[in-house]
Amino acid sequence: MIAVVSPAVQVALAAVVAAGVVILAGPSVVAILAAWGQRQRIRDDAPSRHQGKAGTPTMGGMLIVPAIAAGALVGGFKAPVLFALGAMLAFGGIGLLDDALKILRNRNLGLRARERLMLQFAAAAVLGWIAVGVPWIGTNLAVPRLGSIDLGAGYAVFVAFFVVGFANAVNLTDGLDGLASGLVALAAVGLTVIGAVGLEPPAAIVGAAVVGAAAAFLRLNAHPARVFMGDVGSNALGAVLAALAIITKSELTLIVIGGVFVAEAFSVILQVAYFKRTGGRRIFRMSPLHHHFELVGWSEPQIVRRFYLAGSACLLFGLLVTG
Questions:
Q1: Which among 63, 252, 303, 321 counts the fewest CB atoms within 10 Å?
Q2: Interval 40-76: pLDDT, tens
Q3: CA gap 319, 323 in Å, rounded
């Protein structure tokens, strides 16, 4: 029956299915995670107000990922859908390992940065290899308003860095209640529109599933959060957004639409580089950027609302100017 309905109906259904899974299964999953002892460990150097979040169930990505898969498969087992879901599952799996090690070690340190990056680049290299080998992706990099550049085999390298970079950018943004999930929903709206306008129904369907799951997760994750998505969630969401951008040839547009994620990541890069170069001086009071505003005195809901506004502006700018 699903095969005969219009793409527009499938897009709407994907969002509804994904949101429904999160809403209906959410309370039970949170209870199970709490019973398993999957609770948040807080960094020693985190702002003091975060200490009150210790013990909140984490690894909520184990709810988000199946919800997105259920919504996305409304459109059937098409190659672009499987590519996006494969990226999500691969990076979600790495995040799951990271989260599990944190629980087992009873500290806020799972995989070391080098170990995590090695696994991520291995997974992303496979995605890059697939991308250059299938005609529906190809090796062109679209440059908004200017055309495209054929990167040849180098596109596989670009894909690897792009997916790893965006997955980690979303991961770094996931530091306040509802911040990453809300911004992911906004970015996914943009990719859904791009997929629909560009006559890429599979991408639009997956994008809608991400919108539905991420938005519904806010019911559990908005301040005060009852569950955190964990690395399994943030890595999976970042990877699926990057994969959708690759499918729709909107990689550079996603950098604009996801401008808040990019700013969060660059705040960390700049902070570390400046700290090392100056022997201990800092640009921000703390990075990622949302922690800087916490230490300035903004409340958590204030930061989240203002970052949502910035994310909305990035979404509109990306669609109007670079789309």
A1: 321
A2: 555 555 555 655 566 788 899 999 999 999 999 998 8
A3: 5
CA-to-CA separations, 249 to 42, 51, 172, in angstroms, rounded: 38, 42, 25
HSE-up (13 A, CA, CB side) for residue 19? 15
3-class secondary structure, 114: helix
Backbone angles phi, psi at 137, to 5 degrees: -115, -60
- Name the maximum alpha-carbon separation found in the chain: 64
Tokens of residue 210, six digits:
């991400």
Rg (CA), the chain: 19
Q: Report the sign of the C-alpha dihedral through residues 294, 300, 303, 308, in that order.
A: positive
How crowded is the C-beta side of 133, counted as CA atoms within 13 Å?
8
Q: Which two tokens stand for residue 238?
A: 């970042």
Q: Which amino acid is at 78?
A: K
Q: In the structure encoding, which two tokens stand for residue 231, read together?
A: 């690395």
According to DSSP, the residues that pair with 147 across neighbouring strands are: 143
Residues of the chain with pLDDT under 50: 1-3
Q: Sort strands 140-143 and 147-150 into parallel, antiparallel or unpaired.
A: antiparallel
Q: 314 pairs with which residues across the strands? A: none
What distance in Å separates the CA atoms of residue 131 and residue 126, rounded to the nearest whole number? 9
Backbone angles phi and psi of 59, in degrees to 5: 65, 30
* Single pTM value for the model: 0.93
Report which of 91, 82, 60, 310 is spatially closest to residue 186, judged by C-alpha positions.
310
